[in-house]
What we know:
- There is one protein chain.
- This protein is of the alpha+beta class.
- 30% of the residues lie in helices and 23% in strands.
- The strands form six sheets. It has a five-stranded mixed sheet.
- Strand 9 and strand 10 form a beta hairpin.
- The radius of gyration is 22 Å and the shape is globular.
- The two termini are 32 Å apart.
- This is Circularly permuted type 2 ATP-grasp protein.
- Residues 73-447 form the Circularly permuted ATP-grasp type domain.
- Pfam families: CP_ATPgrasp_2.
Amino acid sequence: MSNFFDEMYSDGATFVREHYREFEAWLSEQSPETIARKRMEADLIFRRVGITFAVYGSDAGTERLIPFDIISRIIPAAEWAQLEAGLVQRVKALNMFIHDIYHEQNIVKAGVVPAEQIFKNAQYRPEMQGITVASDIYAHIAGIDIVRAGQGEFYVLEDNLRVPSGVSYMLENRKMMMRLFPELFARYKIAPVAHYPDMLLDNLRSVAPMGVTDPTVVVMTPGMYNSAYFEHAFLAQQMGIELVEGKDLFVNDNAVYMRTTRGPKRVDVIYRRIDDDFLDPLAFRPDSSLGVPGLLSVYRAGRVTLANAIGTGVADDKSIYPYVPDMIRFYLSEQPILNNVPTWVCRRKEDLEYTLAHLPELVVKEVHGAGGYGMLIGPAATKDEIESFRQRLLAKPDGYIAQPTLALSACPTYVEAGIAPRHIDLRPFVLSGKTVSMVPGGLTRVALTEGSLVVNSSQGGGTKDTWVLEK
């Protein structure tokens, strides 16, 4: 673990970076017993509040705590300003791309993105063709995964535009650090994140259907057995709006209504945490019991807003990811502020040949994969795993992309053996409505296993509080 950028130290464990000096001084004053006690306190509080996630198919039980680390990830104001500008630029271009492919398709006509990459994509929804959505916004909430590699350069690893999760952990991690270590917040000027639910609600209200001045907004969940149910309930409670399931809603006279104890109430904006396929059994999967029959027809008529829009998944597919820098140039006439990770698209003959020849060095991902599943990390794989993946690539090359194995930046982390560097990423949450906005920071995820690059909670990752320093 030597060739990576260390967030706290500029030369091994010798020189502390300026923005970490106060924290490192405080950390050196803490006894191992104090830290162990604070960690236990955090676990107890998280369990009491119910901050858990479900692990499907796990023998360890259905509910787990996401491990929380008490060494915060700190980002200086100037670095955040660059990140924020790049994120705003990227999400603007992605929204313009989604609008374009469901309308004029100029980017396809210009030969920038191949037609088959869009229209044969499993996430493309022909039902959305020609539909006008409020403010032309499709990805109202985007979770953009950022990694740091090399000498400290930021890269976008992937764009999550369907139903990105994790923001509740960002908020609860901050509350936990303020509760456990209030003295740290006296030493540092840390940009707040607690207003995110207010920003989210304002954002959702701003994209209500035309003519609606006082919109009713709801959070739509698949139900309590969903892995992110805690977050659905948490966000509804924080925004002061109703948490509903499909069975709580119905369509009548080309409008969506919610059943209440006072009778039906019109619903204008649905922040849905349900995949496209399950939203409307009349339009998509007829066996879905999670959706609302007739919802698509109301949506097509512009009488309800869905956040995120149906069909946004076509833009966060890993096979579309390599084209995002070209989208920025095409739609905005700007150079990308944030770079992509170099990517080989295995449906291309020369990219497949390179990938097959360098499998032990590369990370290979399924284009529709998520959560750290369906991927090969070459340097950590056995010969048998590499050969098995080789056969999968040969059988279905268009189902995979490959990327170099990045030495993700690391942040000191409390593990069983004490303090040690562990690899991290960052998921800022970008809101698009009348404007594009975000709270400073995001969810920092950490790979708790030594040497591991997989930060996903379903694969044993944990989280940290993310501090963006104010100027």
